[in-house]
Amino acid sequence: MLFLMRQIIQRINTKRKLYDILSKIGSLFARTTQHEIDKAIQTSLIMIGELLKTDRIYIYTYDLINNTCSNTYEYCAAGIDPVIASSQELSLEDAKDWVEMHQKGLPTYLQNIHKQTTYLGLRSLFLAQGVKSLLCFPMKKKDELYGFIGFNYVKSLHRYDELEKYILSEYASILMSLIERFEIEMKYTKNLQELEVVFQAMKQSPNGIVITDQNSMITYVNPRFEEITGYQASEVLGKNPKIQKSGVHNRSFYKKMYETINKGLIWEGELQNKKKSGELYWELDSMSAVFDSQGNVTHYIAIKTDITDKKKMELKLEEERQELELDIKNKTIEIEDSQQATIIALAKLTESRDKDTGGHIERVQHLCRILVKSLRQNPKYYQLDSVYETHIYYASALHDIGKISIPDHILLKEDKLTKEEYELMKTHVTIGGAILSGMIAHYPNSELIKLGNEIALYHHEKWDGTGYNQGLKGADIPISARIMALVDVYDALRSKRPYKMKMTHQEAYNIIIDQSGKHFDPEVIDAFKRVQLEFDKIYKRLAIKE
Which residue from 12, 434, 440, 447 lies 20 to 30 Å from 136 (Cα-Cα)? Predict the structure, then answer.
């Protein structure tokens, strides 16, 4: 009876000591800082180990991604060899049943390793460590398996009673709470550090930064914003950014801006705003919204770069560009006027040698222009614009410039030319081409002179290839020469010559229409049909000059 009483008293004392140890460990963990966590855990292992006279206590953490576990903390009683160094990244390939028990939150208990019938994959490991009895409790963070804490007896077998299991289970829970607490604190500390980095980055940013709440009231501005605008933070906090409005941008501009931002997109653009002094300035803004986890806008952030100097430089460059363009335009007009005057003078010089062709040059100029306008109605010739009209107006005057080298006895002959004389007369196209080619050498960028060269060389070519001087056919003949060919023939048919009488408009019209696809391009003929009455008016109006 006395023996039984002693056992009961001993168990009560042991239970009291275990609870006392747990209380002390809880107090220790409560006082522990992040930098002291390793020391606190190691101290708690010693306190438990010495109370229970356990040979070895250890804490393992699982790495289920790599299917391993590692010993992270260990207590060894006197005379017990540590195994922590050899227990790193141990494979769990043969310990699936062991891990499954811990995932279910159940402890693993082996009273006699030598008679072990479960967890056989770990038997060789336990024997190598000299383990005779062990008890392990899983450590879980909510539903996530973190690791386990183990209690080993090496010197002798040990039967863990229910009180010891309870106390050790509680210790595992307290230890897991400490680890979770410090993980939260570490995450919190990391977040604070990241926030501090972000804050300092915003504070020291070379760009102005403005943050507003969901109601567009300013909650933060950085020092650079103060430098750019002249406002102090205290003057703008709690106010709407519209205090900076310049009045340059309309409501539609700001509406589109916020529509873009509220879609979760970044709006980028140039804004003209107003400083505290009233001075206007330009900024390049990048704006976006900040959303909470439910997708609601909580804040807006704008990053602002002062581009006033850049805009001033752009404006200056634009003004200089416009001045240069105007100067170039004036110079170009001056050169073109000079070229046009030269062309008319050359044409008049040629015309003056032949009294029977008076007014011919002026008429073909107007007829070419009106024919180009009509031809442009054909989509194929949309490129024959007003500039082309002007060019062909002057270039057409040079079509017979080569006649300046034709002898008077041929050029002014009143009778029909002999075969030999006609062949010599035909050389006026190559002579004209040579004269204008020489001019192109001096004015290589002059479209007007190039066009005149085409006309002089090829206006006697025929659509069917029977013309001269090169016998070109169809579209190989430049369109300028095809236009000139019809105009030249029309004016010749309408004009009186020593060797022929002049024709009426209708007679000339019939002859030209009959030559469609032969002498003349059918598409040019179609254009001629649309303006044939205007041809008659132009001829009659200018014929009085003959």
Answer: 12
Q: Looking at residue 292, which CATH number applies to its domain?
A: 3.30.450.20
Residue 468 DSSP code: S
Do 21 and 48 touch, CB atoms closer than 8 A?
A: yes
Instruction: For 463, list phi and psi in degrees, rounded to 5.
Output: -55, -35
Return all residues near 379 (Cβ < 8 A) that are at least 6 apart.
none
Same domain, 120 and 209: no
94 half-sphere exposure, CB direction, 13 A CA radius: 9
Do 158 and 218 lie in one domain? The reply is no
Spatial neighbors of 272 by CB under 8 A, at least 6 apart, are: 246, 248, 249, 280, 281, 282, 283
In DSSP notation, 429-458 reads HHHHHHHHHHHHHH-TT-HHHHHHHHHHHH
Q: Do residues 229 and 244 lie in contact, with contact meaning Cβ atoms separated by under 8 Å?
A: yes
- The torsion angles phi and psi of 287, rounded to 5 degrees, stand at -125, 145
Asked if residue 262 belongs to a domain, the reply is yes
What is the CA angle 529-535-539, rounded to 5?
160
For the chain, the distance separating the N- and C-terminal CA atoms, rounded to the nearest angstrom, is 159
Could you give the angle at the alpha carbon of 27 between the alpha carbons of 22 and 30, nearest 5°? 125
Check: pTM over 0.85? Answer yes or no. Answer: no
How far apart CA 395 and CA 36 sit, in angstroms, is 98
- What letter does residue 89 receive in the DSSP assignment? S
Q: Give the structural domain span for 296.
A: 205-306
Phi and psi at 289, nearest 5°, equal -100, 155
The domain tally of the chain equals 3
Characterize 30-48 residue by residue with b for buried, 16 or more Cβ atoms within 10 angstroms of its Cβ, and e for exposed.
eebeeeebeebbebbbebb
In angstroms, rounded to a whole number, what is the distance separating the alpha carbons of residues 347 and 364? 12
Please report, in tens digits, the pLDDT of each residue of the chain (546 residues total): 555 566 566 666 666 777 787 888 878 888 888 788 889 899 999 998 888 889 999 999 999 999 999 999 999 999 999 999 999 999 999 899 999 999 999 999 999 988 888 888 888 888 889 999 999 999 998 888 999 999 999 999 998 888 778 888 888 888 888 888 888 888 888 888 888 888 898 889 999 999 999 999 999 999 999 999 999 999 999 999 999 998 889 999 999 999 999 999 999 999 999 999 999 999 999 999 999 989 999 999 999 999 999 988 988 888 888 888 887 777 666 556 656 666 665 655 555 555 555 588 889 999 999 999 999 999 999 999 999 999 999 899 888 888 888 888 888 787 888 899 888 888 999 998 888 888 888 778 888 889 999 999 999 999 999 999 899 999 999 999 999 999 999 999 998 877 778 899 999 999 999 999 999 999 999 999 999 999 999 999 988 544
In angstroms, the Cα distances linking 13 to 10, 17, 46, 51 are 5, 6, 19, 11
Same domain? For 122 and 53 the reply is yes
